[in-house]
Design goal:
Immunoglobulin-like, 27 strands, 1 helix, 373 residues, 4-stranded antiparallel beta sheet, 3 domains
Length: 373
Amino acid sequence: MRATISSRRRWPTALLVAVLALAIGAVVGVPGIGQAASRAVPANTAVPVVSGTAQVGSTLTTDNGTWSNTPTSFAYAWSRCDSVGNNCNPVAGATAQSYLVQAADAGATLRVTVTATNADGSASAASAATAVVPAVVAGAPANTALPAISGSAAVGSTLTASTGTWSGSPTSFAYAWSRCDQLGNGCAVVTGATAQTYVVQQVDVGTTIRVTVTATNASGSTPSTSAQTAVVPAVPVPPATGCPSSGTGVIQIADVTSPARLLIDRQTVTPGIVTPSAKTLTMHFHVTACGGRPVQGALVYATAVPYNQYSIPPEATTGADGTAVLTMTQLTGFPASRQQQLLVVFGRARKAGEPITGGISSRRLVSFRVSLH
């Protein structure tokens, strides 16, 4: 009997231990629970590429290569290597995206290591080696401060290159302008751009500009490349006016589009005063657009208000002076009252093929003097 009772007392404790063990095993055994998630550090998918000429005085620039896992920053370290790109040693202080090739690099190749970083960590990838940097000609100019570009990097503006500063007493300078990507990489020489100044062109929109200055003396020549300009912005497109961009005088109706509008700006009637004896009226409507220029080819419609006073003629077309002529015949509804002093006419000018009340059409009420005596 005691054994049974004792066994019953121990059973809940054993059950509790088992449940706890099961829970612990579940926590430990389920991926992502109770242990750190796997880290998604950047992974290189294409190595960095160095652009520029491997020559003393020239500037080399690297891109970042391409990476997965969304790097948030990049760091750079340039190295000097042997002629086949091995046995590399870091160049002290060369940690920018660009590198000015030095006299110490002659006979060597250069590589750059790009380190990509995100919240989970960092990874590095090295570029291929450059060509061997040729030896410096003894006594040739040596660059001590890079050329610089002044002026606004905007279409139509003129950029001007300074020569930079040099040792070796250069006797002449030559210039070569290049068009580069937004980071100043992937540069291509602009054909014919060999003056000290350069006028920014429409084709430069979205790119940056560099200039390479080559200094020459009796011993030889040395090039040096400037930093890139700001990205050349797109030229804002002015809003459409619907009017011809140039010219004066008469406008053909086909050359007027929305948002321009036609305007009936002048009207006359013959006879000048409308009387009961005026069985026929001749009306002239003058149509303009785009700041008062006469429009040829517009269709003009007119009707008296109330409409039964005079007949409604077919639409007339404006001529080279912008005038349309319409003839109305008196009907039984004229005069509209014994006290009538004005004949009100509804006029409309429009472009054939467009909705009557849409497009560039124009409508207005005009009036002519009436005498019933």
